[in-house]
Amino acid sequence: MNAASEFFTIRTPIAYGGAQASTPLAFRWYDKDRVVRGRRLEDHLRFAVCYWHSFCWPGLDPFGGETFLRPWHHGSDAMAQARAKADVAFELFHLLDVPFFAFHDADAAPEGRTLAESVANLNAIADVFEQKMATAKVRLLWGTANLFSHRRYMAGAATNPDPEIFTYAAGQVRAALEVTHRLGGQNYVLWGGREGYETLLNTDIGRELDQLGRFVSLVVEHKHKIGFKGPILIEPKPKEPTKHQYDFDVATCYGFLQRYDLLKDVKLNIEQNHAILAGHSFQHEVALAEALGVFGSLDINRGDDLLGWDTDQFAMNVSELVLVFHEILNRGGFTSGGLNFDAKIRRQSIDPDDLIHAHVGSMDACARAFLAAADMLDAGVLTAPLAERYKGWAGAEGRAILAGQHSLADLADRAMGSGFDPQPRSGRQEYLESLVNRYV
C-alpha cells in the first residue's frame, strides 16, 4: 500500500493563481518562475520542507499526548512505518512543488539496538530516498544527526563528560554526513540541542568548549575526506533545553568558530524563534551573520512573543520578513542555503491537509516579503539613506582613519584645532519606518 494515496485529499500540485485567485489553495505571490534581480523566485527562496515537524511530531505538548494520530506512528514494524512516512513525505514535496527537504537521521529511520543497526536502518531508508529522488524534483538541502533526544545525550553529545558518549555521537554524525553526501545534500547541520549546561556545580566550561571545538573539527576533517563540498552549519540557540547554551546567538557562535579556527568551513543556520529567545530580532541575527561572513541558511518559522519557548509556528509576518530578506538580498542572496520550514502546525490542526495549507500560506508570505524587499532595494529606499549617513567614512579622511594612517595623537590634535566643532545629524528612524510601510 502507498500510504500517500490515502493521506491527503488534495491530488494535484499547488499552482500560482495570482493575487485574485479564488481558491484558498493557490499561490498568490509565489510565482516560482518570476525573475527577480536576475534569478527565478524559486532559486532565490530555495524552500525546503523539514522532515521532523511535518512527519514525525505527533502533536503532543508537555500537558497532553498526541493529537495527529499519523498511521506511521503506530505499528510493530518500524521500518515499514518509516517507508510509509517516506511515501507521504515525497507526496507532500510533490504537491508543494518545493525544490528541497531536510531531515535528521532519527526522523528518517528508527533507532536500532546498536549504532550499527541504526546506521543500517538509515542507509536502507536513504536507498528509498534515492529511488524517489531519481524521479522527483526535490533535492536535499541538508541532513543532520539527532544528538539530543536519546537519554544518552542528557548531558550533551560533544560536550558530554563521558568520552564514550562523544564517540557514539561521532559514529552517528559520520553516518548522517555520509548519507547527506550520497543524496547530494548541499549543507550539513550540527544542531547542538544539548551542548550546554544547567549548573556550574558539575560543569567544566573550558573543557566542554574544547571538546565541542574538537568535535566540529573532526566533522570538518571528515567532510573533506569524503569530498563533501557544502558547508557545515551550526544553528544558534540560546536556551531550551539547557539553561546555558554554548551556541547562544550569532555573536557567541562567531567567537567559538574563530577560537577553534573553523570559520573557513562552518557557517550558521539562523532561526527566527531562536533569535527571539536570545533577546534579538530576526533581522539583527541575519544582519550580524552577514556582516561577520558566517551567514549560511535559515530555518524559517516564528515564535510567540508572549511565550518563552520554541513554538515553531509557520512564518506569516510579512513586515518582519521583508527586513530579513532585504538584508539577505542586499548581500547577494543564498548560495548553498535556503528557507527550511522548521515549523509545526498547531496541535489542533489535525487534518492532514492542514500541512499543505500551512506551507502554502508561509511560502506566499515569504514571496510577498521578498518581492517587497527587492522593490525596496531597486528604489534604494534604505540603502541610499544608509550610504548618506556613513558617507564621511567613504571619504578620504574616513578611509585614512580605518587604514591606520592616523595615530590617536593625530586625531586628537585635529579635534583640538580651531573651528573643529562637529554636529550630530538625525537618524531619521520614523521617516525610514514609514518608507518601509509603503512597501509592506
At a glance:
By secondary structure, the chain is of the alpha/beta class.
Number of helices: 17
Mean pLDDT: 96
Strand pairing plus helix content: what structural class? alpha/beta
By CATH, the topology of the largest domain is TIM Barrel
Unreliable stretches, pLDDT < 50, 5 or more residues? Answer: none
Oligomer kind = single chain
Main β-sheet, spatial strand arrangement: 3-4-5-6-8-10-11-12
Number of domains: 2
Radius of gyration: 24 Å
Distance between the termini: 47 Å
Throw out a few tags for this protein:
two-stranded antiparallel ribbon, 17 helices, 440 residues, 2 domains, TIM Barrel, 10% strand, alpha/beta
Describe the protein's architecture and organization.
The protein is of the alpha/beta class and 440 residues long. It has two domains: 3-369, Divalent-metal-dependent TIM barrel enzymes (TIM Barrel, Alpha-Beta Barrel); 385-439, no CATH class. Helices cover 45% and strands 10% of the residues. It is built from 17 helices and twelve strands. The protein has helices spanning 41-45, 51-55, 78-96, 105-108, 115-133, 163-182, 205-226, 250-259, 272-277, 282-292, 318-330, 353-379, 383-389, 391-394, 396-402, 408-415, 429-439; strands at 35-36, 39-40, 47-50, 100-104, 139-144, 187-190, 196-197, 232-234, 244-245, 266-271, 295-299, 339-341. The strands form three sheets. It has an eight-stranded parallel beta barrel, surrounded by four helices. It has a two-stranded antiparallel sheet with strand order 1-2. A two-stranded antiparallel sheet has the order 7-9. Helix 5 (115-133) packs parallel to helix 6 (163-182) and helix 11 crosses helix 12 (353-379). The longest helix has 27 residues, at 353-379. It is globular. The mean pLDDT is 96.
